[in-house]
């Protein structure tokens, strides 16, 4: 009976590539492991899988009686709903420690780097397992999560891993590939509004308050001009549907290196408290903010504390 490797609900490229890369590593080490996913894939992730010749990991939402590794998060709100009925074997992640606990010792790899795949590259090196050319797809996840090295979460380790993985994958210029990926991300015209809001969306438990934060990273915010009102209306619906205290949507311009934050909240002063900037008509520009993990979640947690 195989184990599984699975990331968070509404999976991004890091979550999916981590599940694939960890499964190959564990299977090579004699521990049969299958990559899985909790939701549908984004256009960027599909682009990566197609480029490197991977099928989509299996869609598996129940893990009752199964054994699994969690990748790219450690939050109960983001993992399988029946996690307590499964056997958790380990957590590999680059976010803050969440609220997933266990009654037995776990394999834990948590590092303050820009991407979970950077950590998994370290695991390959630790176990002296050769990385196949197609597993070089890890490089794309690192480029995505670090916003092609622009994110404040990016570390020297992330850059070195991309360089090494690019050589393995035969990619001469990974930065060009990163821009190609972000162009895929930026092709939002014609996509249903709810699909956009949930494309990269995570729920967080902040001192007993459910806070949902989505992010759309594009190369030019002007593409949202004709749909911003619809996005604002939909995050309001999402807040009501999920009984959330707050829903935020970051519209991130990777070229201008900042984000426009759309927000619907029970606290009208939340952005002032968290970021020192008040909203105007439910919107505020946050200069230099590219990372939800490092620049948005921590000050919000402080505000709720």
UniProtKB/TrEMBL annotation:
Uppermost EC category: hydrolase
SUPFAM superfamilies with a match to the protein in the record: DHH phosphoesterases
Superkingdom, natural source: Bacteria
Keywords linked to the UniProt accession: Hydrolase, Manganese, Metal-binding
Keyword Manganese: yes
Catalytic activity: diphosphate + H2O = 2 phosphate + H(+)
Cofactor(s) listed in the protein's UniProt record: Mn(2+)
EC number(s) from the headed UniProt entry: 3.6.1.1
Entry annotated with the keyword Hydrolase: yes
Domain DHHA2 intervals: 178-304
GO molecular function: inorganic diphosphate phosphatase activity
Protein name: inorganic diphosphatase
Record organism: Colwellia maritima
């Amino acid at each position: 009976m195989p184990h599984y490797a699975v990331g968070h609900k509404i999976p991004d490229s890091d979550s999916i590539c981590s599940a694939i890369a960890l499964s190959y590593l564990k299977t090579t080490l004699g521990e049969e492991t299958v990559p899985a996913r909790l939701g549908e894939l984004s256009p960027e992730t599909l682009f990566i899988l197609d480029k490197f010749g991977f099928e989509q990991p299996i869609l598996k939402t129940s893990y009752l009686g199964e054994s699994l590794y969690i990748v790219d998060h450690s939050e109960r709100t983001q993992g399988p709903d029946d996690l307590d009925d499964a056997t958790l074997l380990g957590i590999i992640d680059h976010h803050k420690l969440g609220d997933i606990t266990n009654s037995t010792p776990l394999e834990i790899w948590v590092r303050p780097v820009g991407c979970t795949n950077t950590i998994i590259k370290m695991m390959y090196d630790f176990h002296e397992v050769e990385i196949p050319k197609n597993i070089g797809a890890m490089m794309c996840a690192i480029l995505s999560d670090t916003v092609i090295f622009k994110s404040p979460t990016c570390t020297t380790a992330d850059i070195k891993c991309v360089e090494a993985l690019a050589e393995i994958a035969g990619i001469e210029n990974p930065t060009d590939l990163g821009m190609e990926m972000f162009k895929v991300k930026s092709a939002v015209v014609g996509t249903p509004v709810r699909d956009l809001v949930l494309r990269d969306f995570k729920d967080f438990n902040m001192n007993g308050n459910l806070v949902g934060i989505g992010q759309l990273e594009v190369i030019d915010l002007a593409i949202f001009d004709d749909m911003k009102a619809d996005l604002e209306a939909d995050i309001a619906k999402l807040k009501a549907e999920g009984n959330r205290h707050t829903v935020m949507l970051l519209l991130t311009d990777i070229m201008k290196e900042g984000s426009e934050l759309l927000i619907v909240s029970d606290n009208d002063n939340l952005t002032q408290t968290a970021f020192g900037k008040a909203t105007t008509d439910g919107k505020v520009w946050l200069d230099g903010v590219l990372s939800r993990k490092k620049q948005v979640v921590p000050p919000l947690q402080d505000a709720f504390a």
